[in-house]
Amino acid sequence: MLKKTQARTCIECGLPYDHPNFSYHAGRVQNGPAYWSERGLLCSHACSTAHFEKRVKAGDPMTEPASNPLEQDWS
Ligand SMILES: [Zn+2]
Question: Contact at 8 Å (CB) between 29 and 37?
């Protein structure tokens, strides 16, 4: 796997993962993020939508659910 220096921030707006405005699954940080793609984390439904639309315009739409990036081995 490629070595990434990917921080745990929203890939659309850069909001840190531990920010109070970050959307967690079922509203609990213990449950992990509510939104993400295989590119990284998304803080909210708005950023998820923006990311999806950007991908469609770029001709690279998300076609399959991505696995939770926090459960992947980034090392
Ligand atoms: Zn965001």
Answer: no
